[in-house]
Structures are given as C-alpha cells and as structure tokens.
Specification:
Blueprint: E1 3-7, E2 10-12, E3 18-25, E4 33-39, E5 46-51, E6 58-59, E7 67-72, E8 77-82, E9 91-98, E10 103-105, E11 109-113
Parallel strand pairs: 2-11
Antiparallel strand pairs: 1-3, 3-8, 4-5, 4-9, 5-6, 7-8, 9-10, 9-11
C-alpha cells in the first residue's frame, strides 16, 4: 500500500518560515518525480514545486526564490522549505509522486499565514 504523509503545517505569521515533510512508503521516491501542490479555499489545486528524478527542481513563479524543494532518497522523504511566507500562501499543501504509469497523493497539511 502506497502512503504519502505530509507534516509540518501550521499557523505562521507573515514573513515566517515552515518546513513541510512528506514521508513515503510503498514506493521508492528515487524512482518518482516528487512534487508539492496546494489548494486554497475556493481555488483549484495548483503546482508549487517539483523535484524530478535526475533533474533540477522547478518552481511556480509565485514561490520562486522563497520555497525550496528537496528530497532524501535514503529516508524516502521529500521536503518543502518555505520562507518569507505571505497570507496568499495559505492553503492545504499536498505531496505528489508521479511515475510513468501512476500518481499518488498525500492527504494534505494545512498552512495558514496570518498575523
């Protein structure tokens, strides 16, 4: 059974930082493109960052320079370091594993940026 479990979300003030983690079981992240998406209330789920296998990370323009995606293949985990958070970053953040024939999602973790 494949599981992606996000953690690290919470309430943070504008300008603050959070680090999200995605613990993966049932597949090996080294064989998958690992990404992060988010969905704000009333909006569609949107791409945030991607750590492709053997390629440079990619980022949405809205988070470029503030967010950093990384992975630890030995721990089978993926991370999203979020700095200089803004109220518009408030959303549920989802971890994604994309393979050649299948895609897996985590259950999401809430990030709220508010003073």
């Amino acid at each position: 059974q494949v599981q992606l479990v996000e953690s690290g979300g919470g309430l943070v003030q504008p300008g603050g930082s959070l680090r999200l983690s995605c613990a993966v079981s049932g597949i090996y992240v080294i064989a998958y493109d690992m990404g992060w998406y988010r969905q704000a209330p009333g909006k569609k789920r949107e791409f945030i960052a991607d750590s492709p296998t053997g390629a440079r990370p990619e980022y949405a323009d809205s988070v470029k320079g503030r967010f950093t995606v990384s992975r630890d293949n030995t721990k089978n985990e993926v991370y999203l370091q979020m700095n200089n958070l803004k109220p518009e970053d408030t959303a549920v953040y989802y971890c994604n594993a994309a393979g050649r024939t299948n895609t897996f999602w985590g259950q999401g973790t809430q990030v709220t940026v508010s003073s």
